[in-house]
Specification:
This protein has helices spanning 15-36, 39-42, 53-69, 75-81, 102-126. The protein has one domain. The model has no long low-confidence stretch (mean pLDDT 87). It has 5 helices and no strands. The longest helix has 25 residues, at 102-126. By secondary structure, it is mostly helical. The chain is globular and about 45 Å long. α1 packs parallel to α5 (102-126) and α3 (53-69) packs antiparallel against α5. The protein starts with 14 loop residues before the first helix and ends in a 7-residue tail after the last helix.
Length: 133
């Protein structure tokens, strides 16, 4: 079945644990949906924008690198080893703007995953593959 949805009523030991649960869930759903697609569908575009499911995977991988690894220190470790109020390291990553707090970055990642998994649901439906949770 995979990782269960992190219900809002399920207790979490910290805000960081809550973020990790959601990221783990979204990563698991992405991997499951991509595995359920027929091979030829993973590299085929069904939408006017032209993106493919494989390109979506590459995009989400790049987003995590961009925000967590380049902006802080690396995917899961950054959440476990830092306070959510900490700001990223100054550098080119921020395009001259002040670095963002880790919590804001994690909210951004969650919305990226949620939005793109919805897109992937549409592609899966068009390809007669599994949809939804």
């Amino acid at each position: 079945m995979g990782i269960p949805f992190p219900e809002p009523t399920s207790p979490a030991g910290s805000r960081a644990e809550m973020f990790l649960r959601y990221l783990d869930y979204f990563r698991d759903r992405l991997a499951t949906k991509l595995r359920e697609l027929p091979e030829d569908e993973s590299r085929r575009s069904r939408l006017p924008s032209g993106w493919t499911p494989i390109e979506l995977l590459k995009h989400l991988t790049y987003i995590e690198l961009r925000w967590l690894e380049w902006g802080f220190e690396g995917c899961r470790a950054v959440i476990e080893n830092h306070n959510l109020d900490e700001v990223g390291q100054p550098g080119e990553r921020w395009d001259g703007e002040p670095p963002a707090m880790l919590e804001r970055v994690l909210f951004h990642l969650l919305q990226e995953y949620a939005r793109h998994l919805g897109h992937l649901d549409i592609v899966c439906e068009l390809a007669d593959a599994g949809t939804g949770e």
